[in-house]
């Protein structure tokens, strides 16, 4: 099973978003609250791809509205990038978690789910045709640049992908988890400055 049979052909973003609500391309729809589709201008020059919605995003229905989103907002602003001009999405569009008491603990999506959900991401990229794609973390990099791509080695470098250039960096949640958060944040910001420089006219 993949999302392919749920993705309408030649559809605009609004149509895709509506169709994605009913996706059953993998098992994750079953326990999650809702599909969290990408958001942003349809003519965005840059698409940023996270991993999957977190707890807050799952409840809210919007990408990057929780703690990772706040960190991303801060870094975007410091790098001189306007969030309103960026299309933000995720490699996997339902929240994967395990329940521990009342808490829902994030689980990293596996290869099956990344592959199953890829048709939505492909459709978004085909519609938007961005100049630059930014992969936030290894899951996004795997979805866009292949499973051989190593974020640790290649982060902050501009690479040529299908019809666009791509830059990979760490996931904002990795910055939040890092024992040396300030250092991790500086590294993340440096990568986003590369993005800002690439977008300069
Ligand atoms: N982490 C992600 O990768 N995406 C979100 O939307 C939120 C947190
Ligand atoms: Fe469909 Fe992706 Fe949700 Fe799986 S995670 S049900 S493929 S939208």
Automatic annotation (TrEMBL):
State the superkingdom: Bacteria
Species this protein is from: Nocardia otitidiscaviarum
Molecular-function GO terms, alphabetical:
4 iron, 4 sulfur cluster binding; deaminated base DNA N-glycosylase activity; metal ion binding
Q: Which residues form the Uracil-DNA glycosylase-like domain?
A: 37-193
Instruction: Kindly indicate whether the keyword Transport belongs to this entry.
Output: no
Which InterPro entries does this UniProt record tie to the protein? UDG_Type-4/5, Ura-DNA_glyco_family4, Uracil-DNA_glycosylase-like, Uracil-DNA_glycosylase-like_sf
Question: Per the UniProt entry, what are the Gene Ontology biological process annotations, in alphabetical order?
Answer: DNA repair
Q: Which UniProt keywords apply?
A: 4Fe-4S, DNA damage, DNA repair, Hydrolase, Iron, Iron-sulfur, Metal-binding
Entry similarity comment = Belongs to the uracil-DNA glycosylase (UDG) superfamily. Type 4 (UDGa) family.
The protein here is known as: Type-4 uracil-DNA glycosylase
Query: Entry's NCBIfam families?
Result: UDG_fam4, UDG_fam_dom
Q: Does the keyword Ribonucleoprotein apply?
A: no
């Amino acid at each position: 099973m993949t999302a392919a049979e749920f993705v309408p052909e030649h559809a605009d973003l609004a149509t895709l978003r509506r169709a994605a609500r009913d996706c059953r391309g993998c098992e994750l729809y079953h326990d999650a609250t809702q599909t969290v589709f990408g958001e942003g201008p349809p003519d965005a020059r840059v698409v940023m791809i996270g991993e999957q919605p977190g707890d807050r995003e799952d409840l809210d229905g919007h990408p990057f509205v929780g703690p990772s989103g706040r960190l991303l907002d801060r870094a975007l602003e410091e790098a001189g990038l306007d969030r309103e001009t960026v299309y933000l999405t995720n490699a996997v569009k339902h929240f994967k978690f395990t329940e521990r008491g009342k808490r829902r603990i994030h689980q990293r999506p596996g290869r099956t789910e990344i592959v199953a959900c890829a048709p939505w991401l492909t459709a978004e990229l085909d519609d938007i045709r961005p100049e630059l794609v930014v992969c936030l973390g290894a899951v996004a990099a795997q979805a866009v640049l292949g499973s051989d791509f190593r974020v640790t080695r290649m982060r902050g470098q501009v690479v040529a992908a299908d019809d666009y250039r791509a830059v990979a960096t760490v996931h904002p949640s990795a910055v939040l988890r890092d024992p040396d958060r300030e250092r991790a944040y500086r590294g993340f910001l440096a990568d986003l400055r590369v993005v800002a420089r690439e977008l300069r006219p």
